[in-house]
Amino acid sequence: MRTSSAGTGGWVVTLTANPSLDRTLDLPGPLERGTVTRLGPSHTEPGGKGVNVSRAIAAAGVDVVSVLPAADDDPVVRALQALGLRLASVPIGTPVRTNYTLTEPDGTTTKLNEPGARLDATALAALEAAVHEHAVGARWVVLSGSLPPGAPLDWYATLVRSLRSTGARIAVDTSEAPLLALLAAGPDAVPDLLKPNTEELAQLAGLPEEAVTGDPATALAAVAALHDRGVAEVLLTLGGEGAVLSTAEGVWSARPPEITVRSTVGAGDSSLAGYVLADLAGLDPAGRLRNAVAYGSASAALPGSAVPTPAQADPAAVTVTPGLTGHPAPAEAVPAAGADAR
Question: Where is the Carbohydrate kinase PfkB domain (predicted)?
């Protein structure tokens, strides 16, 4: 394991088991298959969902340690070091994947994601050890994104169990089979905070997404089922419709401000970062939700996978009301509050 700065611990630790270089290509108009397109400006930034969370938290001046598999000379490591992020990297022999995002002028995005480097049992064990080491004394551990080839589908559940002894709160943001395996592993493996979008909530409930987006009562019942399984807090992101937060204290809905969407890549990650930052600041549930939506909206208004600074996020422009108001939007809607790809 390589650590890029002295010391251990930190307020927040993130794990990005499947990091990437995120290359965003701006299209001059709607994507037309089979044609030659003259691209506008392009952006290449270090990515992966946990990396995006780390970048947003670091931009707020909060200490964060990013755990990821990558060689010392990998472009992702060099880019993150240039940003001043604290890294705990596990060297591997395969270059980090590149993900491509095609953005159209109206904010529509098309994602092309490579599968990522295959990790063997040794690399997975080294990542787990690094996360555990830095989680001791941390306030939050964020396990985020897809799992790389070679990782067991229930690996997040294993990590949650092993991290309980550190005392850190645990957030998970993943999808598909790893998400289903996490919730199927039992109450000792559930995180403190889960951040699904409507598609993922429907997967967990065993329902079509239309059932969740078309009926607030169905959505609330699906969220309540997560609490029954032991999840303390559920941050349900609704794309351009905002987000919903459900805790033991109640349920709140948030509507984002109107923005001009430039790129939706990383908007959900910024939402999660905004939530964690608000929790670190001691805000109540409504305040945490307001900050999450403000960060997600600010991210969607930026190019590429850029993350917002606190000055760019405007919680005062977010409307928060008790309960679940209106109908949740499907994950395909423009994700001003975050429903981005893994």
Answer: 37-310
